[in-house]
Amino acid sequence: GQQLMAGKRGLVMGVANNRSIAWGITKACADAGAELALTYQGEAMEKRVRPLAEEVGAKLVMPCDVTDSASLDAAFATLREQWGQLDFVVHAIAFSDKSELDGRYVDTSEENFKQTLLVSCYSLTAVAQRAEKLMTDGGSILTLTYYGAEKVMPHYNVMGVAKAALEASVKYLAADLGKEGIRVNAISAGPIKTLAASGIGDFRYILKWNEYNAPLRRTVTIEDVGYSAVYLLSDWGRSVTGEVHHVDCGYHVVGMKAEDAPDI
Ligand code: NAD
């Protein structure tokens, strides 16, 4: 299985730094032999992302802000020019105003609700619209979600609502694109300390809680998510679509605090 993704070309969106989940997925895909293109959100991210791209031999490194349709069009136009065809896309993008990832969900503002849903949910559909045209030989689209879509998690608030809509989008997109051999799935990752996660109130408590209560008694790494992503992105996942796959050390099956969990 070493070269499971040899001959496959994929776009990874959402690398901010070497702690990003998108980076764990990028490394695992590169190890499996895939050729990669990366997008970064804006100039501020470029100087971090370029050296990472070099590490995995990715020659295509492009800016792309998903709230700007012209910037999305430009990134996919470059892919069409350079590659002509695309096998997979990783969508590892989310945003909400930090001040609303704290306190109560009921206090969410209309403006931040719209922005959160646009960046964290609609963008997957915007990406799928453009990827579809290049996936002439079938393909695999993968996004990242969190348990806060299914159950109320403290401080996750409007992001939980956005992730619930994202998970529903995965199913609708899978139904639309299946006829073309394009699969659409999500990984529901356990908590990982990343830039985005640092915006969530009391994140350290969530990490500890997961470590003490998940069946595997640890939290996941970006490498763990990367290996599971290779399964969904490669032909080994060829009959899997519309799925939300938990990569969370089993946390989602637990109904109660573990008896051996220390107080935190
Ligand atoms: P991260 O900060 O490394 O990545 C988030 C990325 O989103 C960044 O690269 C950022 O540039 C990008 N982004 C934000 N707004 C954008 C925009 N307008 N246009 C383009 N890109 C934009 O953090 P991460 O934790 O690796 O997040 C990746 C995904 O994983 C997110 O969807 C997140 O919700 C999800 N996730 C994270 C965790 C966790 O605990 N860290 C758990 C489950 C799911």
UniProtKB/TrEMBL annotation:
Binding site for NAD(+): G14, S20, I21, Q41, D65, V66, I93, K163, I192, K193, T194, L195, A196
CDD domains assigned to the protein according to its UniProt record, in alphabetical order: ENR_SDR
EC number assigned by the record: 1.3.1.9
Catalysed reaction equations from the record: a 2,3-saturated acyl-[ACP] + NAD(+) = a (2E)-enoyl-[ACP] + NADH + H(+)
Lipid metabolism is among the record's keywords: yes
Keyword tags: Fatty acid biosynthesis, Fatty acid metabolism, Lipid biosynthesis, Lipid metabolism, NAD, Oxidoreductase
Active-site positions on this chain: Y146 (proton acceptor), Y156 (proton acceptor)
NCBIfam families membership: PRK07533.1, PRK08159.1
Family according to the record: Belongs to the short-chain dehydrogenases/reductases (SDR) family. FabI subfamily.
UniProt protein name: Enoyl-[acyl-carrier-protein] reductase [NADH]
Organism: Dichotomicrobium thermohalophilum
